[in-house]
Every structure is written in structure tokens, then in C-alpha cells.
UniProtKB/TrEMBL annotation:
Record feature DNA-binding region, as residue ranges: 927-986
Lineage, highest ranks first: Eukaryota, Viridiplantae, Chlorophyta, core chlorophytes, Trebouxiophyceae
Name of the protein this chain belongs to: DNA topoisomerase
GO-annotated cellular components: chromosome; nucleus
Domain HMG box: residue ranges: 927-986
Entry EC number(s): 5.6.2.1
Molecular-function GO terms, alphabetical: DNA binding; DNA topoisomerase type I (single strand cut, ATP-independent) activity; zinc ion binding
Biological process according to GO: DNA topological change
Length: 986
């Protein structure tokens, strides 16, 4: 193989590899991986095992040998269709199960393999969802008359290791009907609230997209915190801090605690003058050590990870979103290589138990890694504190805790995040069975010669690291190391002075005179409660018993995808559409976003899974009042709904200033005569003037901080200064519906929007030509921090930065990840990157060429017709011809092959009589058109949507179809993309 280094015109540094025959090898491997349609029936009397993922299937096949055939279901094989009536409320909540294209693609090989088999073992995941998948598979086999005399059993295992799998095979059971009923109950509840409330939202609040049983309650937490922050009134206070030093000793900080016998609280002095008077007294005082106190304290480790605490720690310590943490944990659970084993136990659990066998291994590993003094005399046991916890599974832990376990697989992993998450799980598991950390705490009281002024200094050092050694950090006693799961990166309390060392303070003696190096009155301001981080939101949901840990990641991700919440840094910010949705739900469906109601519903669902309640009765009790509320809310006119929301949200949208009447806060600052009120549009909620269209003033849903601080004047604009290169233009800072932004304006009339070019009236004219040049202020930046130089920089974007380092084989390019040094990349790593890129290219649907390409043979688009390269070097078939379609369908439609320009055919096309001429409409209609997966999906589902919602306008139907498409999983979308490449209809 040949390694080459080169640069290109678009890159300062480009790397590429020439790897002969790599394409063919990758294509064959990929096709073998994806082609499940040719699974032949197993021999009569054979045994079949069904799991969820192909990675797990390959491992079990290695464990069980040739006597067994192991297949993957790729998740659910049936699902509820996204349409009204899928849960029949008139027929005891019967469910209309269907299989989509992707599911049919994967259930086919299972049916084929089961024919003639004597035994089927259902080995899906050991949770409620896994139980449901096993039940669905059995139901499908029965409906297909394949059950017959089959011996069907169910097994579960918490780790993908040979030992665990063989132990599970020796202890089969039947599918748990109670768990299946709990699954059906949850699905029915979520379906009923989603398909009854969401269409109502579309009609009443165009910016709202959906509501959910758990999703809306989680959103309520975020929006209420946002309201608390908005209503918070900061208060200033002053503390007195000093730097003191004994003779020939290090200086240390101290804070004033008493004045004339009166204690100074945490809030210090309310007036700066009082603090400054004490500062002067300290400068004139003679200070000495009054007392030195020493004591030891212990810190105990936390329990091993559950699903939620793993998500919290992943967010706080590693910066991963909950969904990323769960995705990485899934890979660690299934193992990183076909020949290896899973590296951690099952990651969806709320239990904190560790098996006796694993406990022995952990204690042995602790002694090996750290020493016998780090192993406690007795094993530690834990009890979960989470509300509604079921504790059905063991804690998340390594399958083999010894340091060398899984190192080879982890080092070869293409994602460094896998190594970081595994290291965190292992450290937490080790720490939970280690001794306490012993902290040495020292406090020093300092007073003056009259004992009128007293200061205090404290310090804490690690005397014995104990469990902290598992995390590799023992230097700082305040290092949480494992207790930072809440993820709050701000605090409402004041920050203390620089910390001293316990050894330095411990060397002081009572009566030691001290030199005052410096003293000052430090201004502080109380801070509002911090916004939720993803970790903090997970913790809050679990503490209230809302939802299940396995759903937290998808719930938070959904809130962000819907646009109800945005993530800025680590914090979650409630958006206007989210606050509007919560307000709407609180007005019309308050019961269903109540914290206690949702928590009680989780408890009742757990009763169903425990066989203590009937699922249909539970759903009936949920549906009857919901149906009545939906019927009542449907009668409300949209204008009345917006008016009610305007009144409910008035304190948020129009907070009056000191001494200002509430109605005065609604006065339009632009026209001075209109009244501000809540407005809604398809893009979201905003505040607009009642005098529209004469007055076009608008602003964000909540008051802009810049306006409140006086940065932007009443007209919503502030002039930053003239543009240095354009003397007739000025740059202004403005406040709009979507926040603060900068704009290039005419110096003669900055209040009038300046078009960069005269507006074109012709068909197809650029709609942006009559708009001024503008750029939004970055999120998280205060508008008052925007200077003229920064505004010019913002207006200069976007800038062409070119490409970064990449690897190349032929005409296939793959970017080198940011965490990989291009100078140190190996050939194996390059092959891995190229393999992934080839597979992505194979899955990508063909690009649409448009009408021009279909109708104009002489244009450049025709010269770039893609061709499929066959095994014969001289044979090339232009895509779209019957021969090519036959070749693609019969041979390697998904094989990773390059796209090549067919120059000869381009020249031939250029010589045709129609070259360069517009074709007729008939010719255009007959030309083959590229099919789009999304449009194919819409064509298939539009009749059903129209039948379900006959009153919805066409725009809302299209919006619903788009929503359905976005809700599809990657596998479901892939089925439509594949059908496009094969020319089939899903």
C-alpha cells in the first residue's frame, strides 16, 4: 500500500491514502452485512435464537456454535401506525399493529429461518421493551401459522458474555404477560395524549408541534425555572476579605465573621459604607490567632451507576448529552468486536445491586490496583433513593473489572468517547467498594486586640484518599470526583476567598501575631437559580418519579428537536414555543402536566408490570377525562385562546418597571400609541403592536435584556458607529423577534431598512436582495458587549475557511476527526474512516438532477450522469437505462463503488437534435425523474392523513407529514432510501 501526502487548492493541508482494492473489499463486506433477504430456511429440527441487534447476534453465534442459528430483529417488528384509530377507544383499546417497510425487511428472514425449526429462543433485551419485542415476534409467527409445534422460550442476560449467555440458556422462561401489558398501557397512554392533544395544538397554536405525557411535564420543569430566573430580583451585598500572614509563613485568606460581638451572616453587609468602615478598623487593628481547631471527617463513595446517574455523570464530567451517553453505553454493552465480549452490563436499570461474584472480583481488583488498605472490611450495600424505582436489574458495571479487560478493544475503538465512558463506569464501580476518604479540616479564628473584630479561615486536605484514588484525583478535598451528577454549573450562594492549605493553617498556634497584607470590601450580587443542565433535568425527573430512566435521553432530545428548548453551553433555555405550550396545557389540560399526577401514573404502570393492576382499566381511567377536556378545548376559538394566553403570560412578557402601571408596560415604544400583545405565527410566538401594519414593531416573547438595561432605545435600535469602509453607512444594534442583531444601514436614514441591491421584480428574483445585511448576536452574549469592531466581524460572516485534513482513496474522501492528529494517523485508522465513508455513500440516495437535467441533453448536467462500474473493466452502464436498472437490482446496488463521469455518453448526448433546446412538456413528463424518499413517503401516507383530518388545510397536512417523517427512526428512513435505489415502492 502507498501512502501519499499532498495539498489541494481548498485545503492548507490535505492527507490521502491510496489503498488498492479497498473499495471492492469494503463493498463485499458491506453487502454481506446488509443482505438479509437471502437467509435460507434452517434444517428441519434446528434451533433458532432471536436477538435485537446484529452485533449481539454475531457474538451469540460464536458462543452457541453451529447447532444454533442466531438472527437479529433490528428492534421492533411491529408498531402502532401513526394515525387516528390505531388505539381503538371504542373497542376496549384494541391496537392495530402494523409492520412498516423496514420491519417487514427484517421479519422476513426470521420467518424463513423458523420454518422447520424445532425450537425458538427469544433473547431480546432484559427490560419491558425487550419483553415487548419478544411478544411481537411470537405474535407475528402465530399470525403467519409458523408456530405449530414450536417450542418457544424466553431468556434474558444482563451482560453479553459467554458465561452469562450459557447460564441464561440453561434457565429459560415464558414471555411475561405482565411486562407486555405494562408496555401496551404506556404505549396507549402516550398515543392517546399525543394524537388527541397534538392536532388541537396545530389548530390553536401554529408554532406548537406536539404534546406528550412525559415530554410536556419535563418541559414544564424547564419553563418554570425560566420564569423563576425572570422574576428574580438581584440584591447587592458586601463581604470583608483579608490576606493575613504569620512571620516566615505563607499568607492565607480570611473572611470577617463578627463585628462587636454581632455575627455577620452569609449575606454580609447591605451597605458598602458599613463594609468600608470595618475595612478601616481592620487596617488600624493588631491581629492575632485566637484559636486553631482541627478535626477529621469522612467522605463515603456513592452507589454504582444506574441509568440516570450514568447519564448525569456523563453530562457533568464528560460533556456528553444523555442520548450520546446511552448510545456509547449500548456499544460497550454489545462489545466492540465480533470475537470479544460485552464490556459493561445492561445499561437500562435503576438498580444499584452488585452480584456476589462481581463483588469478589471488584474487591480483588481494588487490592491489586491500590493496595489492601483501600478494601473495606465488609462489602458495601446500597439502596436506591429514586422514586418509583423497580430495581429489576443490577447496576451498570464492567463485565470484567480487572484493568486489562477490554483494553485491546477500547484502544482499537475509533471513538475516544468510548474509552472515556468506560473509564468512568469502571472508576465508579471500583469506588463504590473502596474505603472512605479521610479529610483533615482546620479552622483558624483571628481577632484584634479588643476582640471586637473576628475573621475566620478554613482549609481541608486529603489525609487518606480512599475511594478518591479510583478517580485519580486526591489533591483537592473539594473535588467532587463523583458527586457532580446534578450538573449545575452555577450557584446561588456567594463565593468564598481563595482557599488555604490545611497544612499551612495547622502550623499556626493561638496567640501568633498576624500581619495584615491586604483587606477589601468585596461586592457580591445574589444570583438566580441556575438553568437546568441535561444532567440536572434528569436528576429532577428521577427525583419526582416522572418517566423511566430509559426514556430520559429521548425525552430531552425530543424537546430540543421540537424547538421547545435549546442548549446553550450546558444550560437548557426554554424557548417561546415551549413556554407557550406549557401555558396552553396548564389552561386546558392542567391535570396532565401535574407532577404528582404523572408520578402516580408511573406507580400505577409499575403495578401493571407487577401483575397488580389491569392495563385496560388504567387506560380507561386516563382516557375518559382527557376526552372530555379535548372536546371542550376544541370549541375554543383561536383568537380567544391567544387572548387567554396573553393574559396568563402577562407577567413574563410585560413585567412592569418600578412605579410603572401594568398597562404602561404594554405601550408600544415605536409608535407610542399602539398596545403590545402576544402574537403567534408558524415560526413561533412574539410580541407585536396592535397598530400593525402601520406599526411593524416586534420583539421577542420575553423582554430583551438589552432593552431593560437601556442598551437599545425605545425604537428598538442603537447606532454603534459608521462603517470604516463605507462612509455612507452606519452599523446599528437592533432588537427583533428572535433576539438582538446588528445591521448595516444608510447613514442618512438608519431607521429605514437598506436594501443591498435594488429589488428585482422578475420571476425567480432573490427574495433576500431587498433586505439589509444583518447578523444575529451570538447566543449567550449580552447585547451591551457588542462593539463596533465586533459588529463588523459578525457582518463579515460567513467566511470560507476551506477544508481540514482528510484521507483519500481514489475519489473517496473522508475527513479526519478533530480528536485525531493527522500527523499520527495510521493506515488502519485511515481504512476505517474510508470504510465508513464508502458505506455512507452507498446508503445515500441518488441526487436529483432536476428538470433541466432530464430534458436538456446538451447541458453540463448530462455530462455528469453517474455510471455503475461492473466487474468487467470495459463495461459501463448509464444509470436510468433498463439494463442499468437490471444490473443494479441483480448485482450490487449497495456495493460501495465510485461515481464516474461517462464522457462518451455526454458527447453523444450533446450531438442529439435536442441539445441546447428546450424540450416540450410532453418530453419532460416522459423523461425519467429522480425519486425522493421523503416525497415517496408523503405520497404513501397523504391519503391516510387526509382521511384522519378532513378539516385540516393542505399546509397543515404537509406539516403533519413532515412531522411523521422526522419521527421515523434511521432504519425506517433507510428502507425508503433503499427502495429508491432499487426502483421499488415501499
Amino acid at each position: 500500500m502507498l501512502l501519499s501526502v499532498a495539498t489541494s487548492e481548498t485545503s492548507a493541508c490535505g492527507f490521502y491514502f491510496l489503498v488498492p482494492k479497498l473499495r471492492d473489499q469494503v463493498g463485499q463486506a458491506w453487502q454481506a452485512e446488509q443482505d438479509t433477504s437471502n437467509v435460507a430456511p434452517v434444517a428441519k429440527g434446528s434451533k433458532v435464537v432471536i436477538v435485537e441487534s446484529p452485533a449481539k447476534a454475531r457474538k451469540l453465534q460464536n458462543y452457541l456454535g453451529s447447532d444454533w442459528t442466531v438472527l437479529a430483529s433490528y428492534g421492533h417488528v411491529r408498531s402502532l401506525p401513526r394515525k387516528n384509530g390505531a388505539v381503538d377507544v371504542t373497542n376496549n383499546f384494541e391496537m392495530d399493529w402494523t409492520s412498516d417497510a423496514r420491519q417487514r425487511q427484517h421479519i422476513g428472514p426470521i420467518k424463513s429461518a423458523v420454518r422447520g425449526a424445532s425450537e425458538v429462543v427469544l433473547a431480546t433485551d432484559p427490560d419491558r421493551e425487550g419483553e415487548a419485542i419478544s411478544w411481537h415476534i411470537w405474535e407475528v409467527l402465530q399470525a403467519s401459522r409458523l408456530a405449530g409445534n414450536l417450542q418457544v422460550s424466553r431468556i434474558t442476560f444482563n451482560e453479553v458474555t459467554k458465561k452469562a449467555v450459557l447460564a441464561a440458556m440453561a434457565a429459560p422462561r415464558q414471555v411475561s404477560q405482565a411486562l407486555v401489558d405494562a408496555y401496551r398501557a404506556r404505549l396507549a397512554l402516550d398515543f392517546l395524549i399525543g394524537f388527541s392533544v397534538s392536532p388541537l395544538l396545530w389548530r390553536k397554536l401554529p408554532s406548537a408541534r406536539s404534546a406528550g405525557r412525559v415530554q410536556s411535564v419535563a418541559l414544564r420543569l424547564v419553563t418554570e425555572r425560566e420564569s423563576e430566573i425572570g422574576a428574580f430580583q438581584a440584591q447587592k451585598y458586601w463581604s470583608v476579605d483579608a490576606m493575613l500572614q504569620a512571620h516566615n509563613a505563607p499568607a492565607f485568606p480570611a473572611r470577617l465573621t463578627k463585628v462587636d460581638g454581632q455575627g455577620i451572616g452569609q449575606m454580609g453587609f447591605n451597605k458598602e459604607a458599613d463594609a468600608q468602615s470595618v475595612v478601616q478598623r481592620l487596617r488600624d487593628a493588631q491581629l492575632q490567632v485566637r484559636d486553631v481547631s482541627r478535626r477529621e471527617s469522612k467522605r463515603s463513595p456513592q452507589p454504582p451507576f444506574t441509568t440516570s446517574t450514568m447519564q448525569q455523570a456523563g453530562s457533568s464530567r464528560l460533556g456528553f448529552t444523555p442520548s450520546v451517553t446511552m448510545s456509547l453505553a449500548q456499544r460497550l454493552y454489545e462489545g466492540l468486536s465480533d470475537g470479544g465480549e460485552g464490556l459493561i452490563t445492561y445499561m437500562r436499570t435503576d438498580g444499584v445491586d452488585i452480584s456476589p461474584e462481581a463483588m469478589h472480583e471488584i474487591r480483588t481488583a481494588i487490592a491489586q490496583d491500590h493496595g489492601a488498605e483501600f478494601v473495606p472490611q465488609s462489602e458495601r450495600t446500597y439502596k436506591t433513593k429514586a422514586k418509583n424505582a423497580q430495581e429489576a436489574h443490577a447496576a451498570v458495571q464492567p463485565t470484567n473489572v480487572f484493568r486489562t479487560a477490554g483494553i485491546r478493544e477500547l484502544q482499537a475503538a475509533d471513538d475516544s468517547r468510548l474509552r472515556r465512558l468506560y473509564a468512568l463506569i469502571r472508576a465508579r464501580t471500583m469506588a463504590c467498594q473502596m474505603t472512605d476518604a479521610i479529610m483533615q479540616q482546620v479552622g483558624v479564628d483571628v481577632d484584634d486586640q479588643h476582640s471586637a473584630l473576628m475573621l475566620r479561615a478554613t482549609a481541608s486536605d486529603v489525609k487518606f484518599p480512599g475511594f478518591l484514588a479510583a478517580f485519580g484525583t486526591v489533591a483537592d478535598s473539594a473535588d467532587s470526583s463523583e458527586s457532580d451528577e446534578d450538573g449545575d454549573d452555577s450557584s446561588a450562594g456567594p463565593q468564598g476567598p481563595t482557599r488555604a492549605k490545611a497544612t499551612d493553617l495547622g502550623a499556626l498556634q493561638a496567640g501568633t501575631p498576624l500581619l495584615l497584607q491586604s483587606v477589601q470590601a468585596t461586592e457580591h450580587s445574589t444570583r438566580p437559580p441556575p438553568r437546568y443542565t441535561e444532567a440536572a433535568l434528569v436528576k429532577a425527573l428521577e427525583a419526582r418519579g416522572i418517566g423511566r430512566p430509559s426514556t430520559y435521553a429521548s425525552t430531552i432530545k425530543l424537546l430540543q428537536e421540537r424547538g421547545y428548548v435549546t442548549r446553550e453551553g450546558r444550560q437548557l433555555h426554554a424557548q417561546p414555543s415551549g413556554r407557550l405550550l406549557v401555558a396552553f396545557m396548564s389552561m386546558y389540560f392542567g391535570k396532565y402536566i401535574d407532577y404528582d399526577f404523572t408520578s402516580d401514573m408511573e406507580r400505577l404502570l409499575d403495578d401493571v408490570s407487577g401483575g397488580k393492576a389491569q392495563w385496560r382499566e388504567l387506560v380507561q381511567a386516563f382516557w375518559e377525562p382527557l376526552e372530555a377536556l379535548v372536546s371542550s378545548a376544541s370549541k375554543e376559538e383561536r383568537v380567544d385562546v391567544v387572548a387567554a394566553l396573553d393574559k396568563l403570560l402577562e407577567p413574563i412578557m410585560f413585567p412592569p418597571q418600578a412605579g410603572q402601571a401594568p398597562e404602561e408596560a404594554r405601550k408600544c415604544p415605536a409608535c407610542d400609541s399602539g398596545r403590545l400583545a402576544l402574537k403567534t405565527s408558524s415560526t413561533g410566538a412574539f410580541v407585536g403592536c396592535s397598530s400593525y401594519p402601520e406599526c411593524k414593531f416586534s420583539r421577542t416573547f420575553a423582554p430583551a435584556d438589552a432593552s431593560e438595561a437601556g442598551v437599545i432605545d425605545a425604537s428598538g435600535m442603537k447606532t454603534l458607529g459608521p462603517h470604516p469602509q463605507l462612509p455612507d453607512h452606519v452599523i446599528t444594534l437592533r432588537n427583533g423577534r428572535f433576539g438582538a442583531y446588528v445591521q448595516l444601514d444608510s447613514a442618512a436614514d438608519p431607521e429605514a431598512d437598506l436594501g443591498t441591491q435594488p429589488a428585482s421584480k422578475g420571476k425567480g428574483a432573490n427574495k433576500d436582495q431587498d433586505k439589509p445585511r444583518r447578523a444575529g448576536v451570538p447566543k449567550g452574549m449580552a447585547p451591551e458587549a457588542v462593539s463596533l469592531d465586533l459588529a463588523m466581524e459578525l457582518l463579515s460572516w460567513p467566511r470560507d475557511l476551506g477544508f481540514g485534513p482528510y484521507v483519500r482513496q481514489g475519489d473517496v474522501f473522508a475527513s479526519i476527526p478533530k480528536d485525531v492528529d493527522a500527523r499520527e494517523i495510521t493506515l488502519e485508522e485511515a481504512c476505517t474512516l474510508l470504510t465508513k465513508k464508502l458505506i455512507q455513500n452507498a446508503l445515500r440516495p441518488p441526487r436529483a438532477k432536476g428538470k433541466a437535467a432530464a430534458s436538456k441533453g446538451g447541458r453540463k448536467a448530462s455530462a455528469k450522469q453517474s455510471a455503475v462500474k461492473t466487474s468487467s473493466p470495459e463495461e459501463s452502464l448509464t444509470e436510468g437505462t433498463p439494463a442499468a436498472e437490471k444490473k443494479i437490482k441483480g448485482r450490487a446496488a449497495a456495493t460501495a463503488v465510485p461515481t464516474k463521469v461517462s464522457k462518451g455518453r455526454a458527447k453523444a448526448a450533446a450531438k442529439t437534435p435536442s441539445a441546447g433546446k428546450a424540450t416540450s412538456s410532453t418530453a419532460q413528463s416522459e423523461a425519467p425523474k429522480r425519486r425522493n424518499p421523503f416525497l415517496e413517503f408523503c405520497s404513501e401516507h397523504r391519503p391516510a392523513v387526509k382521511a384522519e383530518h378532513p378539516d385540516l388545510p393542505l399546509g397543515q397536512v404537509s406539516k403533519l407529514l413532515g412531522e411523521k417523517w422526522r419521527s421515523l427512526s434511521d432504519e425506517e428512513r433507510l428502507a425508503y432510501r433503499k427502495s429508491m435505489t432499487r426502483g421499488e415502492k415501499v
